[in-house]
Amino acid sequence: xxxxxxxxxxxxxxxxxxxxxxxxxxxxxxxxxxxxxxxxxxxxxxxxxxxxxxxxxxxxxxxxxxxxxxxxxxxxxxxxxxxxxxxxxxxxxxxxxxxxxxxxxxxxxxxxxxxxxxxxxxxxxxxxxxxxxxxxxxxxxxxxxxxxxxxxxxxxxxxxxxxxxxxxxxxxxxxxxxxxxxxxxxxxxxxxxxxx
Length: 196
Description:
Immunoglobulin-like, five-stranded antiparallel beta sheet, 196 residues, rod-shaped, 2 domains, alpha+beta
């Protein structure tokens, strides 16, 4: 009988936990939104859900699973401790272009609830409404810089050539003008000789 006493004590201690596990309801999940912001290289997705638990049990974990990679979700309001009416959680996930399988998993430590997976198509930056402008900027920027530099260089070179030609013309005109004056002086001198 003394050997059974510790067994009964352990059983008495475990009964409330076993009873609460049987009375526990699984937590619920409501998907709120999946929104994104994009730049050239990646898209940042904001995933938001509401965790609910009829028994008002806090979550053991709240996660988003994207292509089998688990992301912990954080509460939007840390002060909210009423789980029976729902508490919102979010995660920010950076994703490149591609097709992703996404689902959410929550647990109250006893029961776990998982949403059905859904597919998330992440477009590349060029596949969005900004695509045409982005393509133009991205594709023309390296080429555009080279072209602008080439045009500036050619313009500078052309200006130098025009200046040289203009300088030669000026010098030729001065030279012709100088020759003309010399010829006039020679003619005057010849004319003066004829008078004497």
